[in-house]
């Protein structure tokens, strides 16, 4: 057994015993109440899931196993001195629950390098789609084609004991994460770079290799990819992509099927697709105003127009967060360090100064502050990654780290099939009448 797998098993055994005791003693305690409004309004605020890898605080933002993004930027191993964290380290932290050493991180990099081979039929499946297909559709088709490689599906068909589900799940998770950069880069080069592909570099880390295979050799772009892959990885369990992956996995669909389900959710404009929508919206604003350097007054008018047209301002608002997303702030700091004079990046910062008071004045929005998607596109455009329809694929590669570490835990903790109760409005009316 590999060393990380062994450590995971030990941690999972200990957690299982702890949870068993916890439930024995406190299993009947109430953790919350549910109002009628909540079941009609997206279950907002209902605690109904366990997700071990990260926890979202409405004011402070995300913490991965207790560590905030700035703390991780200080404590996770990096590829270059004082550089951005290596996402391999974050995956280790989410999976094992402890900060990794440099050696642990190198080990994860090596394992993913070794497991990164993508079979030819996956590329053929992607090639069968028209070139106009959205990159997220190509991506999910690629992941689905890769499902032929699932150890979990094979072991289950043979007849595996419940106690051992975690084992092939773990192997599928490592294989799948290892292969995603190749699939993502293949889609990028196929759709936007004349189908001219770049072979992986066996010496590079996971995110650095993604940048390389996409055709970006600038070291600061590689750093951006390392930061990007770290900050988009997980946002506790109830967001659409995490929840969908977990839900589908609860039916014992293998990690390929479960992850693909989650990524179909990430492809929605209110979730991960918001990153492309932000840049599209800014480009449309620039076109309409005839300038690539709009003033705050011009931005204000454009925002009001967007709202009057019954549309959302992409990149702003959040179902849980009530402050500026620390993922936005981390990207802003990257911008200040690497490209302080970039016009588009400065426009993003001007939008940040303009939008919150306008949204606040609507009186109905719970969070007028920017989320992760408000910033990411402008940084990518700076390096020449202008094809914004591709952005959500980058989010998807990163999100694999969180949702798949979680899937390992779901199977190791023996979580059952998920099946909440639903009601009809007639049933609600009968209940209100006391029938
Ligand atoms: N612009 C305009 N109106 C907004 C808005 C925005 N950015 N955000 C919320 N509102 C509106 C809602 O549409 C809703 O209006 P309604 O009552 O007329 O239907 C009202 O304000 C209350 O919504 P609220 O409770 O604050 O927000 P929700 O929890 O329902 O939704 C999202 C949260 C994120 C979906 C919402 O703020 C939104 O649509 N934002 C724009 C899209 C976006 O940036 N999504 C990415 C989110 C995230 F970071 C990610 O998953 O990647």
TrEMBL record:
Pathway: Carbohydrate metabolism; tricarboxylic acid cycle; isocitrate from oxaloacetate: step 1/2. InterPro entries: Citrate_synth-like_lrg_a-sub (IPR016142), Citrate_synth-like_sm_a-sub (IPR016143), Citrate_synthase (IPR002020), Citrate_synthase_AS (IPR019810), Citrate_synthase_euk (IPR010109), Citrate_synthase_sf (IPR036969). One of its GO terms (biological process) is carbohydrate metabolic process. Keywords: Transferase. GO terms for molecular function: citrate synthase activity. It is an enzyme of class 2 (transferase). It holds the Pfam family Citrate_synt. Its EC number is 2.3.3.16. SUPFAM superfamilies: Citrate synthase (SSF48256). The keyword Plastid does not apply. It comes from the Bacteria. Belongs to the citrate synthase family. This is citrate synthase (unknown stereospecificity). It comes from Hydrotalea sandarakina.
